[in-house]
Each structure stands twice: as structure tokens, then as C-alpha cells.
Amino acid sequence: MNADNVESYLRDNYDRRILLTYRTVKKFYLRTELVRLDIRFLKSCRAKDIIPKFLWFKTANRNLASSSAYKDSQRRLLNVEINYKYQHLNRLKKMYRYSASLLQQYCFGDLFERIQQIITTICCPIIKEKEETVERKLFGHSLCTQQRYYVDRKVVKNLSARILLDDEIDCLANGLDYGLVSRRFDEMGAVGNIEQFSHHVPDIFQHHKKLMADLKDKDKVILNDIRVLNTMQMTLTSNLRSLTDTFQHQANRYRKQHYMVRGEQQQYYQLLKSLKQDKSIIVTRPDKGRGIVLVNKSDYLSKMNAILDDSTKFRCLFGDPTIQRERSLSNLLYRLKKNGHISQEFYNMTRPTGSNPERLYGLPKIHKENMPLRPVRSSIGTYNYGLAKVLKQMLSSIIQNEVIVKDTFAFVNELRSLPKSASKYKMVSFDITSLYTNIPVNETIDIILKHLYNDERPPPTIKKNDMKKLLEFVTEKSHFIFNGKIYDQVDGVSMGSPLAPLLAEIFLQEFEKKHLPLFDLMGIGYWKRYVDDNFVLLHPRVCPDYVCDQLSKCHASIKFTVAKEDVEANSITFLDALAQRQTGVGFKTKVYRKDTFPVHRAIKIYSTYLALHDEFDFIRELALKNGYPNVFVESVIQRKLNSIYAPRPTTPPTPDTDIIVLRIQYYGKPSQIYGKRVMAAVAKQYPLKKVQVVYDVKARIGQHFTTEDKIQTELKSSVVYEATCPLCNEKYVGKTCCHFQTRINEHLSDQKKAMSPTTNPSTTISNQHQSSNITIASKNSKATAQSSNQRTSLHKPSNLKSNIKKTNQLIKCKQSSKEGSYDKFTNK
Q1: Quick check: helix, strand or coil at residue 527?
Q2: Is the same domain home to 204 and 124?
Q3: What distance in Å separates the CA atoms of residue 674 and residue 680, rounded to the nearest whole number?
Q4: How far is CA 240 from its chain centroid?
Q5: Is the pTM of this model over 0.70?
Q6: 275 within some domain
Q7: Measured by CB atoms within 10 angstroms of the end CB, which terminus of the chain is less buried, N or C?
Q8: Nearest-CA neighbor of 195 among 152, 157, 163, 227?
């Protein structure tokens, strides 16, 4: 008995009941599997927000076909159809099980198992054909409704021991900057943004700069903060509030719809949660490019510790000197301001408040053997960050070097302007090894002081010794944290400091000025540098390796590596360009291919129109694979070409025009409508104000992973904290820009001053120790801690308990003191 003769075999050898029951079992089995495929098709359509053709119905008003009500009706009908299919499937299952049990009763021996196998064999081709039909329909609907998005899995470099699932690779391949649909609407962020915006438009903010300065200097709340608005201001604020409420409602509806219909969003959150909980791996970006790298945490820590073990560059500290160094710098700046050596603006920009230590992390160099790490320090929010930015502006005039190229475009223009005779020289690239970590700090400081105080130009108002102290604060006294330990960098500059590139340029400028006469003796005919990369033209008879060795001997801290030109093509890569020389003809330039390459770089780097045309074709193909519409790509290319070859006459803006930035959380079309309505409302009341809308994506893949150390609770600043009295259970909610530890110490000081002389402090403390607690609110974002906008950091206190045991003994209610200490620190 087989699939071809099963019915005749059963008819000739068994009772007719077996044949009829066999047909019934086969019918219900096939129907059950086909209905399963129907449900799979419908659920796939719902997950991808695709409406099947049988749900497209006609309406009397054809314009309704593009309305949201029509789309919602289709989605409801799709859900009803899925529910009906499930009910139908359950009925078929019952009938199949009943008929299969009857067949099993009629059969003897292994006849029932043999019949089941034959039924599966007969139905298999029909089921496969149905599966192909379902896939073909889904593919057809996808082409009609949306561009197909291709994910390049090659951008994910898994160097860890974890075996990634295909879904995990597809999720990570979107990139760390890929925006996800937020699970919840950030109401406080939206309110803070629009409130700050509403204060800037009618210049309310300008009238309260002094108030903000007082808040920062004294950390006090001004009770009489009363603002009287005129009619225009009241109208604008009322309109903005109404528009923001509408936007919040529409954004929540958009978020719920897309989070429900886009099934990959829910899956992405689950996959990212699983990867985040794996403490044995590190997920980060590479040193160059925009890919994603996974490494073992043990390997990552061992390589970073190997860098920090260099005692000539780093020194481990036993404690955190952040507060002490912040106080020392503040005292120095206050003395300089008091003596008139610095201005009030200089003092305001450099005075630190609520600083954090720098945080060190490493970026894998996946293009090099054994994948070394590049150490990078995040210096935003450190005590010397503002000072470094101001000194960078002050010292930038020292840079006067003709061998520096600004960027790839400047290099290409200079190379094309060389005489044809220069093309007989060999092209070589010299790279300085680990430039930032090898810059001699003391020598560089001496060079700066020589330029500032020994040249003919007028010296700065700051005395030489004080300037040296300021430079030491931003170099030698820059500590950082890694893996829970505090380090000082005793030599070299940190990659991440605003002053680091300038210090490197100053030192290399002095190095090149000192050894420039030796370049001719070495056979160097042309020398151009971009940071640590040097493009050199050498005499044809000179050996590049010999020149590299001679350059490395010029200074003990600077070592060079060499990259030679391709012998056959006479070409070499430098920055984003591929330079090719033709002896006696000149130089040609092409694009040096990178993973991401904008259109304007192709236009400016290519030296021939034929090569530029090929590059445009490549960009079109790459953009199409990434889901960009052809119309959009062509418009970008045409706009860039017009801006370069047929620029429009630019009309300078009127001096009275003021640009106000509005940050909006991005929720698709509702965000765009909200931005346009706000711009219209402002233009109606204040026509001279120009609104620039910036869209923010709150949820990104990269936010689930971090390689930086967490800041300790007592060192956090710009926080909202809550103090609960153990006696009356009253709560005090405060906000501070200084360190949380410092703020609590201020509360302690007020407690002691307000306590009655007859009160026994030890008794009070022991009684309060049992139930008092303090919680602090989490920061809105990293930028909020540094922002001058105090509104965006007003959050509801979270349940983050303080680790400082003293704070359990601090807050004393006004009932326990005759002088009312609770009322006293509300003015703090």
C-alpha cells in the first residue's frame, strides 16, 4: 500500500467504513494545515501593516481611501478575519481528532500509522504550493506598500565567545544609532523643551539671566520669581500649550499603532534586553566607521589594563580627587577674577560646579591585527572641561603652520595645484604612532608660555605662573575612572579633551619648525600634515624606510611608521582620497572608499567627470539597498550639483532676525505637523523670529549598551532629590546643581545651626537613623546635567536610594526645632 493505490487497497482488503473514514481524515487534515497558512499570512500582514487585497473596499467618496478612518477600518476587519480563522481552525481540529479516533478504532495492527504517513505524503505537495503562494503574496504586497530594506550583516563583527542568533545579527546590523519606537512618551522632556522655547521667543529668558546666574552661584531658590506676561506672550503660551497637548495625544496614538503593527520593534527590545543582560560581552562601535563590534569583556579589560599599566603615562590614585580639584580650580579662578586678571565672562565659563571624573573606554581597531584598543576619555562634565574650551580659543592664535591641511578637500586642491615636475617624486605617507598619548606635556606647556610671554605680541592679562597652573589643571591634573579605579595621566594628552588637538598641533608645529632644514637633506620635497598623518613627496632615489628611521630619531617621544605608494598603479591613499601620479603629467584623485560616503565629498574629490559618474551610480545602488527612494536620492544629487556649479545668489539675513531652536521628539508625521504648527504660531505673533526645528529620537539601539563607568550617587549633580522626615513624614523635594554629597553636607550644616541648644544631637540622630531616607531623581539625559535650562531636569523623584549613610540622619522636621529648620533650608 502506497500513496498511489491507497484507496483501491482499502476498498479491496478492508471494510468500506475504513475507506470513508480515511477520506474524512485526509480532508480535515489538509483543511487544518491550509487554515494554519491562512492565519500565518494574515498575521504577517498585520505585523508589517499590510492590508490584503480582499479588504480593499469601495466608498462613495474616493478621497476616504486615503484617510486614517479607512485604514483603521481595514485593520479592524483584518483582526476580525484573524479571529474568525482561529475559530474555524479550532472546529477543524475537533473534527480531525474525532475522525482520526474513529479510523484508529477501525484499523488493526500498524495500519493506522501507515495510513497517517500516506496522508502526510499526499498532502505535502499541496501544502508546499500553498506556502509558496503565501510567500509570493507577502512579497508582492511588500513591493506595493514599501521599499524593501536590506540589512548588511557584515557590519556586525562578533569577536566574542557568544554565538549570535540570526535575529540578533539583523537587529544589531541596523547600527547603534538606529531609532526604535519609544515604549512611552517622554512627557517631561516635551514640556521642558516647549517651556524653554516659549521663554526664548518673547525674550523672557533674557530678563532672567541674572536669576539663573544666582541659582548657579548660590544654589538658592528665589521665592519672589513672579513674571508678568503681556497679551502677545499670553496668547503665544496658550497656543503652544494647546498644540503640545494635541501633539502628546497624537504621538501616543502613533506610538501604540506602530509598536503594535511593527512586530520587529517588540522583538528588537527583547533581543537587546538579552544582549544587555549578558555581562560576559561588550557591545561597542569600532574605532573607525559606524559598525558594531562584540568582544569578550575579559579580553576588553585585559587590553585596557595593559594600556593603564604603563607607569610612564598613568598613575593609579587611592581616592577620587574630583571635589578637591574642583575647589582648588574655583579658588584660583576667583582670585584671578578678584585681581582683575580675568573677566566675569571668563570666570562664568570656566568655574566648575558638580563635576564628574572623566570616564575611559576603548574602541576596537578591527582593521589591525590582534584588534588593539584605542583609549578614549569622555571629558564632558569634568571640572576642567570649561577651562579647556576657553583656553582652546585663547591659544588657537599660536597655530601658524603652512604645512597643515584642513581637510581632504584642501589636500586635493593643493595636490592638483602642484607643478607637473612634482609628479616625478615618490608618494609616501608617514603616520605618527599614538600621537596624543606621546605628546610631552611639560615641553608643550613651555612652548605655549614662550609664545605667550616671550614674543613681541602683548602678553595676556593672566600672569605667567597662573597661566602655567591653568594649563596644568587641564593636562597633568586630568583624572579619569575605569573599571572602578581612579587614574591620573602623568604624560600625554587625553583623546576627548577639547584642548588635546590644539596641544598636539602646537607641539608638532614646533617639531616641524625645528627640523625643517633636515627635510631637504633627507630628500623630502613636499610635506603636508593632517593631525598625525603626513603626505610626503620623496626624491626617487631616497629610501622611505631610511627617512622614517631618521624622523623617528628627531624626538624621543615621536615615532613614525611608513606607507609606500603602490608600485604598479603609482597611487596611495591619504584621508578620504586616492592620489595617483602620472610622471610628467600631474596628479589625479579618486575616492578612497569607506562604508559611508556623502555626495558632496564625491563631487569635490573626483578630478574627472567619468569617474564622478561612476561614483554617482554606486551611491544610487547603495542608497537603494538601504531603502531610500530613487526620487529622494536624485534630488539630493541634483541639489548638491546645483549648489556647486550653479549656486543661487544668497541674500544675507536681516540683522533683526533671531533663530530659535525647538527640539521635538520624533514620532513620524505627528511630529512634523506639530513643528509646522508651532512655526506658524510663532510667525503670527513674532514674525522676526525664525524657528529651527530639530527632531530627537529618544530610543536608540546604542542606548542599551555602555562601556563607561557609572557615576557614584554622591558625585551626581543636577539632580532632584527627596528628603522624608522620620517624625512627621513630611517630604522636601529639592534640586541642586552641585554634588549630591555637597548638598547634603549643606543640609547638615543648617541642621546644626537650627537645632535648639538644649537638644541633645546624639539623641536626635539616633532617633532619626531608623526611618529617614533620601532619594534622588534620575537625570533627563547627559546633556541635562550641563544645560543651563533648569526646567528640563525637573523630574519626579525615583526610588534610587542614596548610599551615603549620613543622609539618613540629616533632615529634621520643623516640629523638632523651635527655630524651624525645615523652613530654613527651603530657601537654600
Answers
A1: strand
A2: no
A3: 10
A4: 29
A5: no
A6: no
A7: N
A8: 227
Phi, psi of 615 (to 5 degrees): -65, -40
End-to-end CA distance of the chain: 94
Q: What is the pLDDT of residue 300?
A: 92
Amino acid 612: pLDDT: 62
Strand partners, 314: 489
Looking up cell 541639489 gives 639
Taking a C-beta distance cutoff of 8 angstroms, is the pair 297, 281 a contact? Answer: yes
Q: How far apart are CA 646 and CA 635, in angstroms?
A: 15
The grid cell for 520 is: 631637504
Residue where the block lists cell 543640609:
747
- DSSP annotation of 140: H
User: Do 211 and 77 reside in the same domain of the chain?
Assistant: no
Q: What are the phi and psi torsion angles at 687 (to 5°)? A: -65, -20
φ and ψ at residue 593, rounded to 5 degrees: -60, 130
pLDDT at 167: 86
CA 417/CA 520 separation, integer angstroms: 21
Residue 323, amino acid: I
Are residues 362 and 424 located together in one domain of the fold? yes
Q: What is the DSSP letter of 497?
A: B
Number of compact structural domains in the chain = 4
What's at 807, amino acid-wise? T
Please, where are the H alpha helices in 14-67?
Answer: 16-47
Same domain for 235 and 122, yes or no, is no
Residue 515 lies in a domain: yes
For residue 763 the three cell numbers come to 539623641
Are the C-beta atoms of residues 239 and 196 closer than 8 Å to each other?
no
Does a structural domain hold residue 544?
yes
Cross-strand partners of 581? 587
In DSSP terms, 375 is beta-bridged to: 362
In a domain? residue 1: no
Bridge partner list, 432: 560
Report the distance separating Cα 90 and Cα 13, nearest Å.
34
Cell numbers for 674:
506639530
Alpha-carbon span 456 to 812, nearest angstrom:
63
d(CA 115, CA 1): 9
Question: Do 572 and 663 share a domain, yes or no?
Answer: no
How many beta carbons lie within 10 A of that of residue 446, not counting itself?
14
The parts of the chain modelled with pLDDT lower than 50 are 143-148, 223-224, 595-607, 758-828
Write down which residue in 113, 145, 177 finishes a domain. 145
Q: Give the separation between CA 154 and CA 157, rounded to whole angstroms.
A: 7
Give Cβ neighbours of residue 704 (< 8 Å, ≥ 6 apart): 272, 273, 275, 276, 283
Same structural domain, 428 and 503: yes
Please list the residues that pair with 486 across neighbouring strands. Answer: 317, 481
Q: Are strands 658-665 and 689-696 parallel, antiparallel or unpaired?
A: parallel
Of 591, 621, 636, the residue that ends a domain is: 591
Co-location of 680 and 753 in the same domain: no
- How would you class 415 by CB atoms within 10 Å of its CB: exposed for 0-12, middle for 13-18, buried for 19 or more? buried
Q: What is the 3-state secondary structure (H, E, C) of 660-706?
A: EEEEEECCCHHHHHHHHHHHHHHHHHCCCEEEEEEEECCCEHHHHCC
* Cell numbers at 205, concatenated: 529668558
Q: Cα–Cα distance between 545 and 542 in angstroms, integer? A: 9
Residue with the three cell numbers 512611552: 184
Collect contacts of 35-39 with beta carbons under 8 A, ≥24 apart: 35/85, 35/88, 35/89, 35/92, 36/89, 37/127, 37/130, 37/131, 37/134, 38/85, 39/82, 39/85, 39/86, 39/89
Of 332, 334, 337, 351, whose CA–CA distance to 469 is shortest? Answer: 332
Q: What's residue 95's pLDDT?
A: 92
C-alpha distances in Å from residue 6, one per residue of 2, 113, 119, 381, 569: 6, 13, 10, 80, 73
**What is the rounded distance in angstroms from the CA atom of residue 412 to the CA atom of residue 610?**
18
Quick one: cell of 778? 534620575
Please check whether residues 532 and 481 belong to one and the same domain: yes
774: helix, strand or coil: strand
Contacts of residue 281, Cβ cutoff 8 Å, sequence gap at least 6: 160, 161, 162, 275, 294, 295, 296, 297
The dihedral built from the CA positions of residue 520, 523, 527 and 531, taken in this order, carries a sign that is: negative
